[in-house]
Design goal:
single chain, 349 residues, Rossmann fold, binds zinc ion
C-alpha cells in the first residue's frame, strides 16, 4: 500500500491510513493500537473507528510531504489493481502525471474554472468554491480526492521546485491547468492560512465537506490547525505529517544518553528526564530540538530494524509518543511534566 520509504518517513500517518484504507476494501482494519488512541489523546476527538473520514487536515512544516501523501492515498483509492506501489493501471498513471479528472488540486492558482477569466488569484475564491460544489454534486465512477493548498509558481521558485520534484521523481508531478498551456514545473505547494482560505469560500463548502454525495475525500494542507478557520477544523481529522526537508540534526550531544537508553523503570525514567533537560541547558538547545533529535534517533533505529515487525512497531509507537510530546510543548504544557511522562512512556517493557 505504502512504500517502505514512505513508511519510514511517515510511520505514524502511513500506519493510520493503512488501517483506514483497508477497511474501505472490506478487509479487517489492522491493529489500530497506537494510532487511534494517540489521536484521541492529542486532539481530544473520537476518530471514525478505522474508517476513512470525509476530510483530513495535514499539519507540519513540509507541504510537499503532505501533497505526496495525499496523492498516494488518491492512487490507493482509485487503483484498479491491488494498490501496489509500482502499479501502472490507468488511474495510478493518471494520478502520477497529475492529470486525473477526479483528483483535483485547489489553490489560488489551481482549478481556476470558477474564477473570472480563469486567472490565478491571491486567495481561494468563493467562485471556486461554488464551482467545486457544483462539480461534486454530479455522480462520478471515481473516488474523488480534493486537495486544498496554497501554492506558488514562477521564476523565483524554479530551483526550489526543481529540487522538490526531484525527491518525488517517478511518483508524482506538479498539477496541470487546462487553461494554461505553460509548463508548471515551478509549482510548489504552500501551507494554507485563513488569509488564503477565509470564511466565505470555506463556509460555502461546509455542507459538501461534511456530507459529500458519493465517494469524496478532502485534504487540507496546513502548518498548524490554528491556521485554519474553526468550522473547517471541526469537520476534519487532523493528522501530523513529519517534515522531510529539515536538516538532519546532530545527535552528538545525546550520545551518552542513548548509550543507556531506554529507561527500565519509573525511577530511572524520571532521572533520564531530568538529565535530558540539563543536557539541553548545558548545550543551550531548546526542548523542541531535543525532541527532534530523539525522533531522528528513533527513525534511524527504525531503518535498522525495518525487517523486524515487533521491534519496528514498538519504534513507531515511540515516535508517536515523541510527536505527542512535541504537540504538548507547543501547547505550553509544563516542560518537566512532558519529559517525565514521555520517559515513563518509553520504559523498556
Ligand atoms: Zn493502480
Amino acid at each position: 500500500m505504502f512504500s517502505e520509504k514512505l513508511k519510514t518517513e511517515q510511520p505514524f500517518a502511513t500506519k493510520f491510513f493503512e488501517s483506514a484504507l483497508s477497511s474501505k476494501n472490506g478487509l479487517p482494519a489492522e491493529a489500530e493500537e497506537g494510532a487511534l488512541p494517540l489521536l484521541n489523546a492529542v486532539y481530544g476527538r473520537q476518530p471514525s473507528n478505522g474508517k476513512l473520514s470525509h476530510a483530513y487536515m495535514f499539519t507540519g512544516s513540509d507541504p510537499m510531504a503532505q501533497y505526496n501523501l495525499a496523492m498516494r492515498i488518491a492512487k490507493i483509492l482509485n487503483c484498479q489493481n491491488n494498490a501496489s506501489v509500482d502499479c501502472t493501471c490507468t488511474n495510478c498513471n493518471w494520478i502520477k502525471q497529475n492529470r486525473h479528472p477526479a483528483v483535483i488540486t485547489i489553490s489560488p492558482i489551481d482549478y481556476c474554472y470558477g474564477n473570472e477569466g480563469g486567472k490565478p488569484k491571491t486567495e481561494i475564491t468563493i467562485a471556486q468554491s461554488r464551482y467545486l460544489k457544483q462539480a461534486l454534486s454530479t455522480a462520478s465512477q471515481y473516488h474523488r480526492v480534493i486537495i486544498f493548498t496554497d501554492a506558488e509558481e514562477g521564476k523565483e521558485q524554479e530551483s526550489k521546485a526543481a529540487s522538490f520534484w526531484k525527491n518525488y521523481e517517478g511518483e508524482l508531478t506538479h498539477p496541470y491547468t487546462d487553461m494554461s498551456e505553460e509548463t508548471r514545473e515551478s509549482w510548489i505547494p504552500k501551507p494554507l492560512t485563513t488569509k488564503i482560505f477565509d470564511s466565505a469560500p470555506a463556509n460555502a463548502l461546509l455542507k459538501t465537506i461534511e456530507e459529500p454525495s458519493g465517494k469524496i475525500t478532502f485534504f487540507f494542507l496546513t502548518k498548524d490547525k490554528e491556521d485554519m478557520i474553526e468550522t473547517i477544523v471541526s469537520r476534519t481529522q487532523v493528522i501530523p505529517v513529519l517534515s522531510q526537508n529539515r536538516e538532519t540534526p546532530d545527535l552528538s550531544i545525546l550520545e551518552n544518553f542513548f548509550k543507556v537508553f531506554p529507561p527500565k523503570n519509573p525511577a530511572e525514567a524520571i532521572a533520564y528526564s531530568e538529565r535530558l533537560l540539563e543536557v539541553a541547558k548545558e548545550n543551550s538547545c531548546t526542548e523542541e530540538d531535543l525532541l527532534i533529535m530523539m525522533q531522528e534517533y528513533m527513525r534511524r533505529l527504525f531503518k535498522a530494524n525495518a525487517e523486524n515487525k515487533a521491534v519496528s512497531e514498538k519504534i513507531i509507537g515511540n515516535i508517536q509518543k515523541i510527536q505527542q510530546a512535541q504537540d504538548e510543548i507547543a501547547n505550553y504544557v509544563n516542560t518537566q511534566a512532558v519529559f517525565d511522562s514521555l520517559m515513563i512512556g518509553l520504559i523498556k517493557l
